[in-house]
Design brief:
- By secondary structure, the chain is of the alpha+beta class.
- It contains 9 helices and 17 strands.
- It has helices at 2-17, 156-161, 164-170, 178-185, 228-239, 242-254, 315-324, 331-340, 348-359; strands at residues 22-26, 37-40, 45-48, 54-55, 63-68, 71-77, 82-86, 104-117, 121-135, 140-152, 192-195, 200-205, 208-216, 221-227, 256-267, 279-292, 295-313.
- It has a 10-stranded antiparallel beta sheet, sandwiched between helices. It has a 4-stranded antiparallel beta sheet with strand order 3-2-5-6, with no helix packed on it.
- The radius of gyration is 22 Å and the shape is globular.
Amino acid sequence: MKKILLTIIAVVLAVISVQAQRLEVVDSDGNGVAYASVLNSDAEYVGITDLDGVVADLAGCTDITITHVAFKSKRVKINGDNVRVVLEDADFDMPEIVVSPKPYVYVQTYYRMYYYSGKDGIIYYRTGVTDNVYDLEKKKLSASTSHMSKAEYGLIKTVMGMFGSLFDRQSRISTQKMENRLISRGKAVQLKITDAGPHKKNIIDNKGTIGHITDDMDSHQRYFAYNTHILARHLLEAGGDAKSLEKKKKRDEKKKDRKDMDFCIYHIDDAGNYAPEDLMVMQYMSSWDEVEEGETDHVITALQVFSTDRAYVTKDELKKRKKDNKIKMNYANIQQFERDHNIPALAPSVQQKLDELCKK
């Protein structure tokens, strides 16, 4: 009987010792921060927070770093089973804009795109600036992109380079409000936006919640966070396209635990209104595990866009803005540009690998 009791105690202690460590990441108002990346002390991938700001299991980590495109990075020591971390807003802020009766709105956006492998480091890196010009009378947007720099190696150099223009196009601002774009894309799955409490809404399709919209009235910012991977699958299912669904299933089998996560911020007024030129930050990020010969490698690809200049201008003023905003294409200038415009830092491990690569 004594041996049985000791065995039961040992089992209970073992269960307790391997209990999952839960991480909750929130902003200063207590709202969950979706899509924050979590790395351990060796800069190895631990997880990405879900729509509620949670990583269910920290895998026994005692020292983690949390990064997010809209918040300051934070290093945290883990002492207990569960931990709640509050992130501070990033210093990045959009230039003020004074409304005036001029024919054009000019918005300069800065973008960076990278492909990061935990095993191989930075495989692809690309940055550039886009001059967005919105004709107020014709309600028409035009955009020209200046490519600044790229650091790349291996087969990816050829493959990814072919899609450079695609990344450029994604760095342009949209003339349609985010809410309308989401509802239009999700018609087949009855996508809707519903109230979820003060200054918060849920993005819901026919299968459940796929995203959140949160307003921070202190900073007058609206946050959009939603999972495009789930939405894409639901759209295929609603369309009954068995062939495309099978292809997607096979791709997902190769990319384990894949997440496609969109996040953006718009500046809003007291009534919650905003215009195309009020875009502050936009990020498209994909994350997955690749298993090869029994080894797992975590991969992240991200395209981040930041508004760095904006103004109501005449034709002559527009020409001057474009001329003044040109940047010489080298890595040192890119780093200085990011410092001058308070562009949030990359995850420490990504930045370290990028610096090493560019020094070569």
